[in-house]
Amino acid sequence: MKKGNAAQLAAGTYTAVKVPFKQRVVKDFQRNWTLYLMILPILIYYAIFKFGPLFGVSIAFMDYKPARGFLGSKFVGLKHFKNFFTDFYFLRLLKNTIRISVFDLLTFPAPIMLALLINELKHKTYSRVVQTVTYMPHFISTVVICGMIRKLTGSSGGITMILSNLFGIRQEAMLNNVNNFLPIYIISEIWQSIGWNSIIYLSALAGIDQELYDAARVDGAGRLKQVLYITIPCLMPTITILLILKMGKIFNVGYEKIMLLYNPMIYEKADVINTFVYRKGLLDAQYSYSAAVGLFNCAVSYTLVTATNKISKRVNGNGLW
To answer: Please, what are the averages of pLDDT over each run of 10 residues along the chain (321 residues)?
Structure first.
C-alpha cells in the first residue's frame, strides 16, 4: 500500500507500507463474505468425500484388517503391487483396459461432428428437435440402459432377431459371445453420450465471431472451406482440453456399464482393471490388494494426463494448465 500526504505523492517521495497477510485476508473476507459462504458447501464436500478418503490409500501398503484398524495392521510395503504385477490376470486386464479405452477414444470425434452438423442446420425448430433427441439417452440411468441392451441383444431380443433375419446370424444371446462385447459397448456408448458431449462444442461454436464467416463468404469460400479454415481452428482449444481430460479416463474406463453387461463367459475380453478391483475389494474382501490396484490405476491416469498436457502445449500452445 502506498502511503503519504498529497505533497509527498506529488513529489514521488512516498513510502510503501506492506499490509500483513492476515489483515489482508480479514479485509477481503469482510468485503466478500457472501462469496465465501457460497463456496463453503463445496469445500466441505471436497474435504469429506475427496481429500478425506486419501488417508485410506495407506492400506495399499499394509495387510489391512478391519478389526485391527489402520494402526494395528502390518506394514508390507510394495507386496500387493508386486502380487498384482505377477498375477495371472494382469496382462489380460491391462490388454482389455487398453483395448476398450482406445476404441472408446476413437469415438472422441463423434460429438464434434454432431455439433458441426447441428451448427449447419438453418431450420431452428429442426435443430432443437435434433438436439433434444440426441440429449435424451444421457438422462437415462446406466442400469436402465444396460437392461435395455441385455433385453435387445438376448436370444429373443429385437436386435438379435433383426440380425438373424437379415444376415443369417445364429439367434443366441449376443453378450454370451466374447467377440460381441466390444462392438455392443462402443455403439451403445456413442448413442448414450454423443448428444450430451456435443453441448460444449455447440457453446464454443456460438462464441465464434460471425464476421469471420462473412469475410470468408466475400472471398468466395464455401461451407466446407469455412468449416476447415474457421470453425475447426476456433474449436481447437476446446478440443484440446477435452482430449486431455479424455486421456485421463483411459485406465478408468466406465466400469459400471461393463460390470452390468459382462458375465463370467466373456471375462476374457470384458474384464478390466476397475471391475477386477470391484471383485477383489467388495466381493473377496481383499481390501489392501484392491487398494494397491486402484492406486496403480490412478498413478497411470495422472501420468497420461500430465504427458498429454505437456505434448499439447508444445505442439499447439493449448493445455489444461
So the answer is: 52 62 85 89 89 83 84 85 88 89 87 88 85 89 90 86 83 85 90 89 87 86 85 87 81 80 86 86 84 86 83 74 72
Left, alpha or beta for 285 (phi > 0: left; psi -120 to 50: alpha)? Answer: left
Burial 86-106 (b: 16+ CB within 10 A, else e): eeeeeebbeebbeebbeebee
For the four alpha carbons of 10, 15, 20 and 21, in that order, the dihedral sign comes to positive
Q: Which residue has the cell 482393471?
A: 273
Are 231 and 112 in contact by the 8 Å Cβ rule? The answer is no
Ordered domains of the chain (ranges, CATH): 1-31 (no CATH), 87-316 (1.10.3720.10)
Q: Which amino acid is at 40?
A: L
